[in-house]
Amino acid sequence: MQSANILLRKIVRSSVLPFAAQHGMKKDLFPLSRTLSLSLCLKQDKSCETSEKLDLDEWKKVMKSGLQEEVSEMVSEPKEISSLAAARETLEMWRLAGRAVPENISEEQLKTFMECPSKSAKKKYLKYLHLKELHKKNDKRKMDEKRKRRLEAQDQASKTDETKKSPFICMWSSTMDKAYNWRAAQSMIFGQPLVFDMSYEKEMSLREVTNTVRQIVLSESCNRRSVDPFHIHFCNFKDDSLYHREFIKQYGEAWGKLLITVTDQCYTEIFPKDKLIYLTADSPKVMKTFDHDKIYIVGSMVDRSIKTGVSLARAKRLGLETAALPLEKYLLWSTGAKNLTLDQMMHILLTLKDTADWKKALEFVPKRKYCGFVNKPVKELKKTLDLINTLKLGKGQEEVQKQFDKSYPRRYKLK
Question: Where is this region: Disordered (predicted)?
């Protein structure tokens, strides 16, 4: 009898109950299965009846929970889909209203947007996504522009290579190079000396030494192409120094063929002291005219920290005359230190040597450092500005007005 009961339970579990759960008839069939099992157990002991009742109750709970989970999953999926669609419609409405909304948004970002606790939090999250999307677009645009410029540069380089291969261009460049070398060779015999003081290696870092050598290379190239070049001297130049290694990196095999004088001696041992003038921005004496009989010294130093007084102290120790360019006399200075690069100094000195025109020479000063050229000395302009400020403040207006009328014509009179 017990084996028959087990077999009947298996048949009910495998066939009847799945069919009832599929068609929604679970509640009607539970009493039938319970009566069948109870009728079979009436002929058995009371212990068997109790165990069978407990098994059926547990089975009923399990079946109910399984069906509820399936139904909840089927109901939750359409709800989630409908809420995502509603959120997308809300985003589209905000986009049409002109708010900062990203064009493309993923499902994860949309779920995060829906989980925001307030409307302001949702707006902030959408603004963050919008800015992130704009940054990505901007980076992509920059990359495309770089790629485009690189391709254009490659095309231009290919075109220049083709022009360089032209026999006429090659002949012209070689002829001009010979002419420049001839001028540099003549300057070594008849030219005015220009000294680069190479004794500042200890005051600079490796990066500053590299920048100094690059500026000197530009200066040498500019001097070689000028009409009347200087005879360049590298004084206090030590072999196997940082300067030496950087020059070999820059020039390569051409370093030994340069038409310049390189020596480890000091300039005071080569030239007479009464002819030497040390050009430094810290000098109290201002250079008025370019003297063709003097020998100018330029300190080979690039100092990012603007170490004032280093070159002036060196010149004073050696008992040399110093001079500074008249920047304040001709330029209305704006910002920055009055220290110029070595190649700018070379351009200024070459222009003064050829034309003796300060206005033309000081055009090589970077335009970001000054507002323009002045016709009057800067001291007079400062006095005028002080008078104008005093008149505006109303302090001693009558006395200042009289002084202003005496110093300046009527057309400058303040209204």
Answer: 138-160
100's CB contacts (< 8 A; 6+ apart) are 126, 127, 130, 131
Q: What DSSP line would sit under 359-393, residue for residue?
A: HHHGGGS-GGGEEEE-SS-HHHHHHHHHHHHHHHH
Answer yes or no: is 89 within a domain. Answer: no
Is 226 domain-assigned? Answer: yes
pTM: 0.53
- With tokens 């002045």, the residue in question is 374
Counted domains in the chain: 2
Euclidean distance between CA atoms 222 and 178, whole angstroms: 15
| Tens place of pLDDT per residue across the chain (415 aa) | 555 556 556 655 555 455 455 555 444 444 444 444 444 444 444 444 444 444 566 656 655 565 455 445 444 445 556 777 888 888 888 888 878 888 888 888 888 888 888 888 888 888 888 888 888 888 889 899 989 988 888 888 777 665 555 665 566 567 777 888 888 888 888 989 999 999 988 888 888 899 999 999 999 999 998 988 999 999 999 988 899 999 999 998 888 888 899 999 999 999 999 999 999 988 999 999 999 999 999 998 886 665 778 889 999 999 999 999 988 888 887 777 778 889 999 999 999 999 989 989 999 998 888 877 776 555 565 666 666 666 555 555 566 566 666 665 554 444 4
Tell me which residue of 346, 371, 128 sits closest to 217, measured CA to CA.
346
- Round to whole Å and give the CA distance between 142 and 134: 12
- At CA 258, angle to CA 253 and CA 263, rounded to 5? 110
Give the Cα separation of 304 and 20 in Å (integer): 89
User: Could you tell me if 315 and 238 lie in one domain?
Assistant: yes
Beta strands, E only, 14-136: none
**In this structure, is residue 70 part of a structural domain?**
no
Q: Are strands 276-279 and 295-299 parallel, antiparallel or unpaired?
A: parallel
Q: How far apart are CA 29 and CA 21, in angstroms?
A: 10
CA-based radius of gyration for the chain? 46
| Residues 332, 266 share a domain | yes
